[in-house]
Amino acid sequence: MEGSIFKSYRDWLDEQKMPKGKRSALLAGLELFAKNGYDGTSTAQIAETAGISQATIFKYFKTKYDLLIAILSPIIENLIPAYRDDFFAKFDGFNNDLPGLISFVIEDRYNFLKDNADSILILLSQLLINEDVRKLFVKLINDSQSIFAKTVLKTLKSTNAVKDDLDPMEVVRTIVGQLAPFFLQMHFLPYTIEDEQKSLKSIEKIVLNIISK
């Protein structure tokens, strides 16, 4: 990462030094795994979308599974930690301001999900069935606990506005429980949402009503 925060995996990939055929295979794999699922995507489809031969794919990745891991590993090990650190670094600006904090979290995390929709959809699907991906993700969660405690817990406590019977993880689950379905709705059923920003403001109100004293 070299200190840079990229908007998405695609932007990050554009900055990596690698052969054009390898980059094309990774981008095509990202698109098709997100759209059709890992099992629903063949290397022939990836090659056609990438504009390369299957032989070129196998030159850089021994198997389709190796291509999948080559997409997900930098997302879990490099990109998400960088996004996490950049996100948490902004929490100090919301001490004693629960409404401002919730508004920031929902807006920021929704934009992150939208900008990285392909990557997130692949990651979510693989977390359900792929032990290798789960291990990488569990390590990410474990590595994040310290910074979570120093930022999220500290800022939530500073507001003195969260219900006393709610612990911080319940607040996080409340936000995720509202935001994740909305992200999926926007991705798969965008025609069912008339006003994206109005919907996000509605989510903010719902979360605040649930967690505020």
Description:
With 213 residues, the chain is mainly alpha-helical. Helices cover 74% and strands 0% of the residues. The protein is built from ten helices and no strands. Helix 2 crosses helix 3 (43-50) and helix 9 packs antiparallel against helix 10 (196-211). The longest helix is centred in the C-terminal third of the chain and has 29 residues, at 131-159. It is elongated. The chain starts with 8 loop residues before the first helix and ends with a helix. The mean pLDDT is 93. Residues 42-61 bind DNA. It holds the Pfam family TetR_N.
Name some characteristics of this structure:
DNA-binding, 213 residues, elongated, mainly alpha, 74% helix, HTH_TetR, 10 helices
Write the layout of secondary structure elements.
Elements: H1 9-14, H2 20-36, H3 43-50, H4 54-60, H5 64-88, H6 98-115, H7 117-127, H8 131-159, H9 168-188, H10 196-211
DNA-binding region: 42-61
Domain HTH tetR-type: 19-79
Protein name: TetR/AcrR family transcriptional regulator
| Rounded mean pLDDT score | 93
C-alpha end-to-end distance: 41 Å
Oligomer: single chain
Beta content comes to: under 5%
Gist of the model:
By secondary structure, the protein is mainly α. It contains 10 helices and no strands.
